[in-house]
Design a protein that fits this description.
The structure is a homotetramer of 335-residue chains.
Chain A: E1 2-7, H1 12-22, E2 27-34, E3 39-40, H2 41-44, E4 55-58, H3 61-67, E5 70-73, H4 80-89, E6 93-96, H5 105-111, H6 118-123, E7 125-126, H7 129-137, E8 141-143, H8 147-156, E9 169-175, H9 190-193, E10 198-199, H10 207-219, E11 225-231, E12 238-245, H11 252-259, E13 266-268, E14 284-291, E15 294-301, H12 305-319
Parallel strand pairs in A: 1-2, 1-5, 2-4, 5-6, 6-8, 7-8, 9-11, 13-14
Antiparallel strand pairs in A: 3-4, 9-12, 10-11, 12-15, 14-15
Helix pairs in contact in A: 1-12, 7-12, 8-10
Function (chains A, B, C, D): Catalyzes the NADPH-dependent reduction of N-acetyl-5-glutamyl phosphate to yield N-acetyl-L-glutamate 5-semialdehyde.
Family (chains A, B, C, D): Belongs to the NAGSA dehydrogenase family. Type 1 subfamily.
Active site (chains A, B, C, D): 147
Chain lengths: 335, 335, 335, 335
């Protein structure tokens, strides 16, 4: 058994990590921490009663290093950097779920804050296995992708050679409320979002440069990504609808099937996808359609599972030399 | 037109009051206030754009008295008392939506705090028209009933002469999340309550003594009320299921129809009621069934309309000599 | 009072029509019918108990003509035509809520079936007041717009002179489940759509040619409209997100405000709109943003109110010489 | 591996059975059938794509017997009997999820139809492990309990010796919509039940005699059970609130903890339970409170998991000599 830690266990992603690790056949969840600490896990997450219990510590890098080989960090952006730096210096492998190590330094600093750990940033690997599987295997620090970028990039990757980069790509995204985080705000109050839907930060969301950068790195093409996310009255789940112009006519389903033929965690559907079929799982479900030169790509992930926790564990599996699918959830929360 | 004020306009009840008063044919909404003030109404409630606009003041009793004959107070329990006292001294008629004037002093002080305005408390009238219509007409201060008590009392009143008071009465109540208030808490976060239901404060809710006291005042019988409320994943609405033992067998629908024959805002149904048919309206919908000596009463109100705002406006109509139904909403939010 | 009829009163739109007409100060709802007939209105719609009651007839054109000056038809597409033809021949004015008279004959026949009433089709007026107010006033037959077209057209009209018609316009739409109709299907089963979202008929929805035709008629520009609707887990409401390229840079909010300066039922917002603020009302709420030459338009209507019933009543008001806003709902179903 | 069959795989319970069996370490899902058959599993349940695939047959007892040792039947009440009889005659062990073998013959015939298989009924074992574990181990036919009875009986069992049987026991139950079945009806249409709640069949539900009989068999006391179920706007989950009078004062949490000390699938909570903490799992969560002689019991199960599918698989584990918890889901669908 390989000892692992979860730092930032109180949020939704933290809970999903604990759920996966509690049943993982090779990882032992040996250290759990929040910013405050000082309670038992089942006080934090009553659903774990009868399944898994442990103390929840106040996060301490030395304590992590003393017992664990790898740590999952579910900390806020800009906060994570400091802790990652400490853990890396102590020789702990890290899967960071924040945005702090996902981007090139100039992109990060344009959208967040000055980076305080450029050294580790240099060597961090973007944790999308379908893109970077081999690099992840040998990485000591993996930057877990954002939820919207996961579904957007996986949806668009097969089409980058066909899309006309002289025209904008529009991405209209919809996410369940867990994507907004556990903090109670006006937007996340049940009465505000139930029976409601609205866009937020149109053309201003930080996931936009992440999608753009990764598609550029892979294809060499600097697509003009225009991203508009929405909150929907669901607990979990995320749907991406991307619109672009093609340079040539293609058979989009054939393109998808060829591109992902060997990828067990990407499923191609011949009808529009929904968010329940992959909820609770590591699957990304994709559909696409063309009309003349117009391309429509439709993809879905569970924002706090494949968009976050399960992808992190899949990355950790690769980093620790295990099969990528070890302990990875695949049974959906249906019906 | 009669000038009225709404103090405490930022919450859900405040918004419902503004909605009703904006279209009221005889009341002019002349003064709107919150604890902070300093914005325009449509900043507070964007849905009112194009319908009604005004300044939102920081609540001031003298300012209210200078322009208004009657004020609606939607302030927190225990806070309302101070403001009511001021307004009454200035000659303003008041409909108070808090619990501060609903109960006999000893009941209030047993469940809340020492009462700081026993003089006005003495003369306050409990604002349930089906019980106290005449007293409301001549009242200067009306204490608007709680939402759960409104539906519970209306449901049980017709049966008090038949219920065996030697046996407990159990009330299992269900409310939409607006009943928990606008403040963001763990319970009201969409992710917590969506797809969920749970009881809270079983046998400990402050509405229990209110229900008990009013049934006693009306019937002379001190029923052993045992109240368990629940939150359900709906925005508005409230369902009451009451269980009791009868002293004799009765035809419960006939009893209901006879008791409420002349009450336009109580509707009797011959099947279990739901919360949508009366949502957005001043109706209380009731159904009942017996099996031998066991009585089941099922009643529903919109918790922030009949359970609060519309009942307050109906009370104000009576206090100001208008027809009770003036400007009162009756068209439900269906389908 | 002007006697009016509602034919097809059993569905969601039928119920909304009855709700509006029951409180209309000048229209008397004198004849209500469904395909079967033979019950009382409150059996069909229990929420109307205590508000409005009448017999529900089996639809008969002669009976309508005998008592009513105007009829609202909420019948399925392709069925409506037959009944409209009969009513028009009997001299009844008609507001038809189906698609049967909305389009030019060739467009209609390309997407529906051969038209059996080309004579009346010739003179039918498309019932979007912001476009056709004067023609509606003198019309004997008004074709009420589809729900998605209402919000899409109103959102795009102000921008047609600026949009580059050489580039596709993408419309990503989201609708509450009432838009799918009252018929129980796999998609409308609560368990299917709760906690879910999915696109349907991408690039194949019949509202697409309707949007295209009306924008062409108004602007002379034949935009390449690409429409993808989605179902969301809400009861009512509809959000439109449209993406296009501009020929020049503009201030979109200024454009919207200027275009709709005199339109009381279109509200311009300076932030993304939501579907609750206009739910239950005749308002269309619009927001827009540009980034360089990229245009984002965001508009919302209640699909069964402004997208259907209230717009129909507004049209009838105009046809019968009343003020357009007579009896038109404006208070939203908030919070 | 032990070959098992699922007959009636198209409904919600059928899907949950397939989900559990697809990952079961000792059961091989070797035969899947619906009434019609003739498709592939992933056509029936797209969420299983990439996880499990097989043909779906038209149910045939001989085909089942030819390949399987045990069959799970998820067929409608009254239909199941015929198929069970065939399978038993062919030597197949059966876990029947219908009501057909749960009750004594006279109770069954009083509430359903004449029983056509009294011989097997005689030997059928009621599949509640906490009650009948040993009998289940040696059973050839297990009758899986109803969902409401599972939570009601588990909640009340520890208190039967304390409850005063001279007084009614009231059970107010709430269930997610999956409990109403996959068939589309007025009640299960999203628009009907979203934002809504209502009781149905008050004092008339068939689960009432089941609860009563099992409590009598265990305690010797014939409680006067009065059961009122409700539908709530959630997909899955079930909450029970039971109210009774005690003969003596007790510490209810201590009673629960003692009673269920060795039961891994019953969790005792010291606060009211909710339906999410056990959703997707085989757990039954229970809380209780007393006030004087009044008892309040609050229990929760996932209606289509512990209330159905996972309990069936736990029973099958026992029947086939495996550990009861083999392949049984315990990780909840939280947050």
């Amino acid at each position: 058994m390989i000892n692992v830690a979860v730092i930032g266990a109180s949020g939704y992603t933290g809970l999903e990590l604990v759920k996966i690790l509690a049943g993982h056949p090779r990882f032992e969840l040996a250290y759990v921490a929040t910013s405050e600490g000082g309670m038992r896990l089942t006080e934090l997450h009553p659903a774990m009663q009868g399944i898994f219990e442990c103390d929840v510590h106040k996060a301490d890098a030395a304590a992590v290093a003393a017992s664990c080989e790898l740590a999952f960090l579910a900390l806020p952006h800009m906060t994570a950097m400091g802790f990652v730096k400490e853990l890396m210096a102590l020789g702990v492998k890290v899967v960071d779920l924040s945005a702090d190590y996902r981007l090139k330094r100039e992109t990060y600093e344009a959208h967040y804050v000055p980076h305080i750990d450029p050294e580790n940033l240099e060597h961090a690997v973007y944790g999308l296995p379908e893109l970077n599987r081999e690099a992840i295997r040998s990485a000591r620090l993996v930057a877990n992708p954002g939820c919207y970028p996961t579904a957007s990039i996986l949806g668009l990757l097969p089409f980058t050679k066909y899309i006309d980069e002289d025209f904008p790509v529009f991405i209209d995204a919809k996410s369940g409320v867990s994507g907004a985080g556990k903090k109670c705000t006006t937007s996340t109050h049940f009465v505000s979002i139930n029976e409601n839907i609205f866009a937020y930060k149109p053309f201003e969301h930080r996931h936009e440069p992440e999608i753009r950068e990764k598609l550029l790195l892979d294809s060499g093409k600097d697509f003009d990504i225009n991203f508009v996310p929405h909150l929907i009255p669901a607990t979990r789940g995320e749907l991406i609808d991307a619109y672009a112009l093609l340079k040539e006519e293609i058979d989009p389903i054939a393109v998808l099937k060829a591109y992902y033929a060997d990828e067990p965690f990407v499923r191609i559907f011949e009808n529009p996808v929904d968010i329940k079929a992959c909820s609770g799982t590591n699957f990304c479900d994709i559909y696409a359609k063309v009309r003349g030169k117009k391309l429509y790509v439709n993809s879905s992930v569970d924002n706090i599972v494949r968009g976050s926790s399960s992808q992190a564990v899949a990355n950790a599996n690769l980093m620790m030399g295990l099969e990528e699918n070890t302990g990875i959830p695949i049974i959906a929360y249906v019906p």
